[in-house]
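Let us practice reading a record.
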Amino acid sequence: MHTIYPYKISMFDKINGKAGYPNLGSLDGGKIDAFDFIKNWIEDVQKLAIVSHKDKKNSIQFKGFKFDLKNRRIYGWICSGDYGIANTILNAHDGSHAYDKTENHVEMIPHFVYLFIPKNSPKGLVLLHSVRNSGVKTIFTEMINAQCEKKIPNRRFQVNPAPYKKALQLWRSAVAKEIKAVPKSIASDIADKVKKITPNAETIVTIKPPISGSFGKWSDFDKDGTPQSELLEVLEKDYENITATFQANGKKRKIRMGANVTNDICIIEAPDDLKLQGGNPQLASILKWCEDIQSDFK
């Protein structure tokens, strides 16, 4: 349900008259610090009650952003939701009427955003939180670059995937300790019985090796002809949201696997200890998760 997508952030610009990627603390010929630029932009958006994208019937809010200049970090929530269609909202447990949602009502879903903007490096890190595979990458990129057009024309921030596989040898050699997958369909009689107890229940298949065993290294899963790649191929016929838990140097990561997840995209699943309130991550808990991920990219 909750995932993190890591991205690199940089800007193609001129360095001493030549094209390249300047340090983020010295954009536009050294006149602009990306940290201050992003901070000022977010503060301006945060002052607005809501930002609406009329063409896409989408509403956006920036809330609770913190600016840690000492550690060059910015984090907070981008809330987004769609409007334009009236619906009836029911109680999920007993089917009773809760309220009527009009075409002007919007369900604002909070997405955590974490940025590390180093001063003396051309690349920073952006961690974007997704809920049920829905995120704010497009919103974030479009809005920050609209600000670039206003303040520093002809320059844009590039926000590209920062995959673990290519960037971190630590996780290339990590071993898979568990694999989970969601069946694409389950027997209707089982589904009916489960729905009577709770309609939001999810059936998950868990595969575990013997005690102290593993399913091999992460790097084995994308090598043609290995037992690991063959296992993924078989699983993908009947299952989705395939997640492997990898372990290395006492650390664990839950990573989405499969042919539809390319080497250029990394999807990090929420750890078991992520604390939720009302189904949404608590600030301290998701901040700790992001700090842990950032430490992998140092």
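A brief commentary: The mean pLDDT is 90.
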